[in-house]
Amino acid sequence: MTATHDDGLHAQTRHLHYGPWSLELRGDELANIRHADRLVLRGIRAVVRNHNWLTLTPHVTHEEIAPLPGCELRLTIRWDGHGAEYKGELTLSFSDTALEVEFNGTAVKDFRSNRIGLIVLHGPDNAGIPCEVTSPDGGKLSSAFPLGISPHQPFKNVAALAWERDQVRYRLDFDGDVFETEDQRNWTDASFKTYSTPLERPFPVNNRPGDHVRQAVRLSVKHRIDITDTVTGSVPELGTATGVEDGDVRPRTLPATFGPLLAEVSARPNAAFATISPAEA
């Protein structure tokens, strides 16, 4: 993995590259995730929100890059604010065809929360693109990112979400909780957001010191190659030559049904070559 950074007035942006992957690390957020220079996701991050939907402030306290076969980036994060505290670790690992983000969080003291875990931001240009939603029981539903602004969650009960653009198939697999997707254009944010936990579950949730949350998101990429039986060209006629005693080595066109040919070369330096079909051998 290679990294460069831009120093801003209020924050530092680091540009990470691994194989075909590139992204921006903005504090605790993985932003503008690209594969082969194509923008796939606007971002992935872990959030902690209290019982009033107020977001605790993240602080990255430690960063480590592990030189594993797939390479890993580990961020140790502390969240605080609004009378609450939380701590956790965000791990990003790469391979050529997949990127995985794992979150492990632990409550530091008693507080009530409406949401703790990973969120994924999709770009607004996904609007109208067909997708396939896989539920936790393995069922599949054909759907599409809404073209018009959707007042309700377009995708619920999500264990995996797949879509295709420019003959490239993208798939998100979620682990550790059930996710759903909302249309953030309702709140003038130009994105779709996939998050946990479903809003139909009771909230707020009482957190006790030591209570643990684990979630993971895996983004995989597969290129689609179309194979058809359309004729786009032809193979020229094949031919060979047979050696005879009088030195006649004129080309002989092979029949359309010819099989493998056996070529026998004489040990005598001046002898002519002979080709014998399987039927004659």
Characterize the structure shown.
It is a single chain. The protein is an all-beta fold. Helix content is 0%, strand content 56%. It contains no helices and 23 strands. The protein has strands at 2-7, 12-18, 21-26, 29-35, 38-50, 57-66, 72-81, 84-94, 98-107, 111-122, 130-134, 140-144, 155-158, 160-165, 168-175, 179-183, 192-195, 205-207, 212-223, 239-241, 251-253, 262-264, 274-276. The strands form four sheets. Strands 1, 2, 3, 4, 5, 10, 13, 16, 17 and 18 form a ten-stranded antiparallel beta sheet that branches. A hairpin with a 2-residue loop joins strand 7 and strand 8 (84-94).
List the helices and strands and how they pair.
Blueprint: E1 2-7, E2 12-18, E3 21-26, E4 29-35, E5 38-50, E6 57-66, E7 72-81, E8 84-94, E9 98-107, E10 111-122, E11 130-134, E12 140-144, E13 155-158, E14 160-165, E15 168-175, E16 179-183, E17 192-195, E18 205-207, E19 212-223, E20 239-241, E21 251-253, E22 262-264, E23 274-276
Antiparallel strand pairs: 1-2, 2-3, 3-4, 4-5, 5-10, 6-7, 7-8, 8-9, 9-19, 10-17, 10-18, 11-12, 11-14, 13-16, 14-15, 15-19, 16-17, 20-21, 22-23
Q: Note the gap between the termini.
A: 61 Å
Number of helices: 0
* Overall body shape: elongated
Hey, roughly how much beta strand do the residues contain?
Answer: over 45%
Radius of gyration: 30 Å
Summarize the structure.
This protein has 281 residues and is mainly β. The chain has no helices and 23 strands.
